[in-house]
Specification:
Pfam families: DEAD_2. Keywords: ATP-binding, Hydrolase, Nucleotide-binding. InterPro entries: DinG/Rad3-like, Helic_SF1/SF2_ATP-bd_DinG/Rad3, Helicase-like_DEXD_c2, P-loop_NTPase, RAD3-like_helicase_DEAD. It is a single chain. By secondary structure, the protein is an alpha/beta fold. It is built from 13 helices and four strands. The chain is 55% helix and 7% strand. The protein has a four-stranded parallel sheet with strand order 2-3-1-4. Helix 7 crosses helix 8 (141-148).
């Protein structure tokens, strides 16, 4: 018989073990990795999602991360030839006294796919499908795709979303403990070079050199500016 002097008589130890088991079970559920599927172009994403639709995994929760160039549905921003990212940020910050109505309807898209999953009607979709749904619901497809990433098992995106640390940070992508698949991985070197490269004109270099000349001649942080000036001169 259990003694009366220890926890086994009151069942406390059993409750503690049960609590530990439940905690471990919850941790196991939370640690299920996402699959990040990187491709070279957006067109290839369309091909892959079309093939996914033909498999037994068509109903798996998914999302496609893409730029505003492909997903923005705001009539002014989407039709503009200037920087759409900057225009979008200005609208969200309300700098001109106006906001984006579509951004405030983002939740409608996630609710729609949640209902589709609940009724087992959800199928793999493409960027064009998401944009069409966004227009129908008057909801931003760009931010909807990012919101869907939280519950997605598969995340499709171009290479640079996974390789470029700045894009990863801005898109809240954490690859630790996740599964990463790179389609046509022989293109990774070129994509990696593009992520850490920057294009400048000769005019920009000459302007930079003139400004650095002023800094050096006026004894403003000479140790920092002299090496930069030397780089500009050598490139010119």
């Amino acid at each position: 018989d259990p003694c009366s002097q220890c926890s086994c008589s009151s069942g406390k130890e059993t409750e503690k073990d049960a609590s530990k088991a439940k905690k471990k079970e919850n941790e196991d559920q939370m640690s299920i990795p996402k699959i990040f599927f990187g491709t070279r172009t957006h067109k290839q994403i369309s091909q892959i999602t079309r093939e996914l639709k033909r498999t037994a995994y068509s109903s798996v929760p998914m999302t496609i991360l893409s730029s505003r160039d492909y997903t923005c549905i705001h009539p002014v921003v989407s039709s503009s030839t200037s920087n759409r990212n900057e225009m979008c940020v200005e609208l969200l910050e309300g700098k001109q006294g106006k906001s984006c109505l579509y951004y405030h309807g983002v939740h409608k898209v996630s609710e729609y796919y949640t209902l589709q999953l609940a009724h087992q009607k959800c199928q793999a979709w493409d960027i064009e499908d998401l944009v069409s749904l966004g227009k129908k619901l008057r909801a931003c497809a760009y931010f909807a795709a990012r919101e869907l990433m939280l519950g997605a098992d598969i995340v499709f995106c171009p290479y640079n979303y996974l390789l470029d640390p700045q894009i990863r940070e801005s898109m809240d992508i954490n690859l630790k403990g996740q599964v990463v698949i790179l389609d046509e991985a022989h293109n990774i070197e070129d994509s990696a070079r593009e992520s850490v490269s920057y294009s400048v004109t000769e005019h920009q270099l000459r302007s930079a050199r003139e400004e650095l000349d002023l800094m050096v001649n006026n004894n403003i942080r000479q140790k920092d500016h002299e090496p930069l000036r030397a780089v500009c001169c050598s490139l010119i």
